[in-house]
From TrEMBL, chain A:
The lineage of its organism: Bacteria, Bacillati, Actinomycetota, Actinomycetes, Kitasatosporales. Residues 13-290 form the DUF6895 domain. Pfam families: DUF6895. This is DUF6895 domain-containing protein.
Automatic annotation (TrEMBL), chain B:
The lineage of its organism: Bacteria, Bacillati, Actinomycetota, Actinomycetes, Kitasatosporales. It comes from Streptomyces griseorubiginosus. This is Uncharacterized protein.
């Protein structure tokens, strides 16, 4: 099969699964306070981010675009109750950045909650918000979102890059799972989730071009599909993506006929909600990697002199 | 069971020999090959594991003499080395790594005492075509198996392939460390010390120390790391 078609089809199938299982994106109103009401917001924010990428890149077919629009509408209208759940979340934990992080991609897609925005703007002016202790890569993501939202990033992103693992270009043979996720997210934040590959500083792009092939090889062999998918996104964010054929073929082969992508090795079995919670993320990642790689491959094709 | 007993004895003999060679690399003292090997003419009846170990270790069995330029091996040691060269000539259909490993042993022998050669053939290099277009994973694996060829000033076809692919070998080193394949990592690391164009961000020096720390209980790993460190700090011949 043509490689770009294989890459594209992974995303088509992933979106079919996400659409069919959209009720899995659910909040738990009566959750145990020890667990926290905001715990289940993350999947909703990730869904919105990936749908935003899909609309932005413009490589989706009409069915895909319709499914994505229905998905994001469902998440906003039902899961977030038109934004009211974000307001409630912010009331429960005023200093938490999570409602803001979930809101931003919805806002960029045209949804709006003035009440939530008022809360975000006030809370983010607090010194306490800027002082919240978090890992450098998480802080980098938050600053990037502040810039996109139109408030001053505190601190500016440029001050944060050097504090991330990736920003220091350490020994590539020390990378393990947690470090690898820090790497992928640093790339997501620096490129605005693949929108601006030029946001990757040249030194970091060179470093990734050198070592990413070794990491792709390793996590393919370990069948860690969730991480492999994120690394394939990183590849698509590089100035010269490799579209690693072996990694993509392995990734595509791991996908289930209904479009679900297992997180590690094979599909889990059991209660549907629990299965959803395990595989929604790798399936979102599959859609993300597919859309971005397809878009980059088509861009390259368009630029190739005939 | 007999087979597995024989392989255990051979593995033990390889570890013993490698431990002696690591000590020689560290101290610069003389090492001995004779004394471990039984008298007799070869592998006919019951293969002598100590002699077979010399063949397994290959040209590295005399590396301290080559690398440290210390006193040449005693004649009795060279005789043992020659015996290992002659006892296991690679068959015509041997894999390229066997052909090259034997070639490297014979070349070392010719350099140390040509009078002991006597092997058939003119000693010309085997081909390196099997490495043409080799993916970096396979390339690194094969180079690590052929670590005895990684010597300063060598110009074999295998060395030329390695010189052309420093980034690929560096990726292979990363892969080997990630997989906890310390022997492959040590062999790849030894090659990398000889190559120009190895990316700075690899962190080869600490990488070699890391490999020794994690896998150095295996004398073969300790030996390759020590050899790599000596190559790194010494002016090429």
């Amino acid at each position: 099969m043509n490689h770009t078609r294989l890459v594209h089809n992974v995303g088509v199938r992933a979106l079919e699964w996400l659409h069919a299982h959209r009720d899995g994106f659910r909040l738990e109103s009566d959750v145990d306070p020890e667990v926290g009401f905001l715990e289940r917001f993350k999947p909703v924010g990730e869904l919105a981010l990936i749908c935003a990428v899909l609309f932005r890149e413009g490589v989706a077919g009409s069915r895909q675009a319709t499914l994505a629009r229905q998905l994001i509408d469902h998440a906003w209208c039902h899961t977030l109750d038109g934004g009211r759940m974000l307001v409630r979340g912010q009331h429960v934990e005023p200093l938490s950045p999570i409602p803001f992080e979930v809101y931003l991609p919805f806002r960029e897609l045209g949804y709006s909650s003035p009440e939530a925005e008022r809360a975000f703007r006030l809370n983010q002016r607090l010194d306490s918000f800027a002082a919240l202790e978090m890992s450098p890569v998480r802080r980098l993501g938050l600053s990037a979102f502040q810039r996109r939202f139109g408030v001053p990033p505190r601190p500016p992103e440029a001050e944060l890059v050097g504090a991330t693992w990736l920003g220091r270009s350490p020994e590539p043979w020390t990378v393990e799972g947690h470090i690898a996720y820090d790497i992928t997210h640093t790339v997501f934040h620096l490129t605005d989730w693949g929108e601006r590959p030029e946001g990757l500083p040249a030194g970091i792009a060179d470093y990734l071009a050198l070592w990413l092939p070794a990491w792709l090889d390793d996590w393919l062999d370990l069948r860690r599909w969730d991480l492999l998918g994120e690394l394939l996104v990183v590849d698509a964010c590089l100035p010269d993506p490799t579209f690693d054929v072996r990694a993509w073929e392995g990734f595509a082969a791991a996908q289930q006929p209904d479009g679900a992508m297992p997180a590690v090795r094979t599909m889990p079995e059991g209660d549907p909600d629990e299965v959803f919670d395990i595989v929604y993320h790798p399936t979102l990642v599959a859609a993300f990697a597919s859309v971005l790689a397809t878009s980059r491959a088509l861009t390259r094709l368009a630029r190739t002199p005939s | 069971m007999e087979q597995s007993g024989a392989s255990t004895r051979l593995a033990g003999a390889v570890q013993d020999l490698m431990s002696e060679l690591v000590s020689a690399l560290r101290s610069g003292d003389r090492f001995r090959l004779a004394g471990r090997v039984m008298d007799g003419d070869g592998p006919e009846a019951a293969p002598d594991p100590a002699l077979a170990a010399v063949r397994v270790v290959g040209a590295d069995a005399v590396l301290p003499s080559v690398l440290l330029r210390c006193a040449p091996p005693e004649p009795a040691d060279l005789t043992v080395f020659a015996k290992a060269v002659h006892a296991w000539p690679p068959p015509a259909d041997a894999p390229p790594t066997s052909l090259w490993s034997h070639w490297a042993m014979r070349r070392a022998l010719l350099r140390l005492d040509a009078s002991l050669d006597g092997a058939p053939g003119d000693g010309s290099e085997p081909g390196a075509q099997w490495l043409d277009e080799a993916p970096w994973q396979f390339l690194t694996h094969q180079l690590a198996v052929l670590a005895p060829l990684a010597l300063p000033g060598e110009d074999s076809a295998v060395t030329r392939v390695a010189r052309g692919r420093p980034v690929d070998v560096a990726r292979g080193f990363v892969r080997a460390v990630r997989r906890r394949d310390w022997l492959q990592a040590a062999g790849a690391g030894r090659w990398l010390t000889l190559l120009d164009g190895v990316p700075e961000t690899l962190g080869l020096d600490t990488g070699l120390e890391f490999v020794a720390q994690m896998g150095g209980e295996d004398a073969r790993v300790a030996f390759q790391v020590r050899a790599a460190q000596l190559l790194r700090t010494r002016v090429p011949v």
